[in-house]
Amino acid sequence: MNAIGKTTTVASGLPALLVARLTGELTGTGEATSTTAPFTGTPLASLRQSTAADVTTAFDRAREAQISWAKMSPNDRAQPFINLHDLVLGNQELIDIVQAETGKARNSAFEETIDVAGLSLYYGRHAPRFLKPRKRAGAIPIATQSYEYRQPKGVVAIISPWNYPLSLGICDAIPALLAGNAVVHKPDTQTALTSLKVRELLIEAGLPPEVWQIVIGEPADIGQSLIDGCDHVCFTGSTAAGRRIAQAAAARLIGCTLELGGKNPMLVLEDADLDKAAKGAVRACFSTTGQLCMSIERLYIADAIYDAFTAKLVDRVAKLQLGKGYDFGYDIGSLTSSRQLEIVDRHVEDAKAKGARILTGGRARPELGEYFYEPTVLEGVTSDMEVYANETFGPVVSVYRFSDDDEAVCLANDSEFGLNASIWTRNIGRGRKIGEQIRCGTVNINEGLAAAYASNDAPQGGMKASGQGRRHGEHGLLEYTELQTIASQHVIGFDPPCGISTERNAAILEWTYKLLKALRIR
């Protein structure tokens, strides 16, 4: 399977033996395809793609393994995920793989390991409690005992994207597996090595290998097979693709969890700490070179501080250092693909041609690598420009003015998307009041995105065209379960007692219900 050769390292910076070991875990029988290292534009790995038949085989294996996995107690299922925490945290090889496949800066890759370690430990500690049967009020007090059970769906299909291949590849698999399901996972081909590596670590931590199957291939070739074989589908990606998946899932009457696109707003109020807000905006706009669904792409600034804040922001952005390599010596890495570079360049050039002003950045940097683009701040963006309403998914943010809180809320909500928002103010109460009016799944106050996203106990997801369902917290685990009620009846039944007519029984029941209400029992 390995087409790299026998040298110690490949041009991507990854050891050839590591690449060979990971690609050897793929069992696809389709055509081989190659991935490219964004830092250098050189070949990274040769991967054997899966056919529709391979996907069917993966589901068969997963479904067989799921039976015994689901029979294990939640505490026993949790142990591999508690163990994974230590295997992921500080794993330099894993960070190298994430960088090699995405081109992101090392700190952004490191943050993915922190995310996975934290979420794995959180669910390992709390999943058994979330899955415990819960006593519910019965139909007849004392006589009826009713319990709510959470049963696994069966086999979950997970389709994960390339931009956060570690976080989004495993952080949906963790709750799905802990709930007692097996998983058939299709990572983006460009970042398959990351998923293969973390699966290797989780097997080392104690996970039965067959309950997590990995397949790769183009959606046109294996997408329908994934939907046809699963009992629930989880997808992170574009809104257009999410709509197609939702329609396919609806046709089979199965559930779907979707985190889709975003055009996320940040509001800087007149009482904000401008230095902190400018620093936070840089991180929120340009982490992972802006290739993050929760990134800020619209920045609304109060009139009274617009000039002062914009000057601070532009100064910080202009000082960001672009770079590549496996160290912490730079701020911003590469875009991941030529497609993303083309979208970023098109949005900026269209805005410039229609009158927008580039305050800093605004050009590709081919001397650094094929997909490098400068962090860019645009001013004077109008609704006829492509960048105004469409997700750029790159290192570009547009700045706008607002006059009061009502206008700020109106501008923030002026989007088909509703994933993430950010508010900067010294008055937290005011910030919360504004946040409640913004139609986004998460709102961060005095932070761009991490406060909400990293709160593993709190649900995270989108409104409007940004998706449905939630990850994280109790909600993110119970997404992957079916509700079941088991009720037992004791002493008193629902049939009329012997010798009592149905008419008399109806009168007794009516009197009983009135009494229960008066005693506040029901």
Explained architecture:
With 522 residues, the protein is of the alpha/beta class. Strand 16, helix 16 and strand 17 form a beta-alpha-beta unit. The strands form five sheets. Strands 12-13-14-11-10-16-17 form a seven-stranded mixed β-sheet, sandwiched between helices. Strands 7-6-5-8-9-19 form a six-stranded mixed β-sheet, with helices on both faces. The N terminus is likely disordered. The longest helix is centred in the first third of the chain and has 25 residues. Helix 2 packs parallel to helix 9 and helix 3 packs across helix 8. Helix content is 41%, strand content 19%. It contains 19 helices and 20 strands.
Low-confidence stretches: 1-10
Q: Give the fraction of residues assigned to helices.
A: 40-55%
Shape: globular
Taking the sheet with the most strands, its summary is:
7 strands, mixed
In spatial order, strands of the major sheet run: 12-13-14-11-10-16-17
Give the helix tally: 19
Average pLDDT for all residues = 95
Radius of gyration: 26 Å
**Structural class of the helix and strand makeup?**
alpha/beta
What fraction of residues sit in β-strands?
A: 15-25%
In brief, what are we looking at here?
The protein is of the alpha/beta class and 522 residues long.
SSE layout and pairings?
Elements: H1 16-23, E1 32-37, E2 42-48, H2 52-71, H3 74-88, H4 92-102, H5 106-130, E3 134-136, E4 144-152, E5 155-160, H6 167-170, H7 173-178, E6 182-187, H8 192-204, E7 212-214, H9 219-229, E8 232-236, H10 239-251, E9 255-259, E10 264-268, H11 274-286, E11 296-302, H12 306-318, H13 338-353, E12 357-360, E13 376-379, H14 386-389, E14 396-402, H15 405-412, E15 417-418, E16 420-424, H16 428-436, E17 442-445, H17 450-453, E18 463-464, E19 467-468, H18 473-478, E20 481-489, H19 502-518
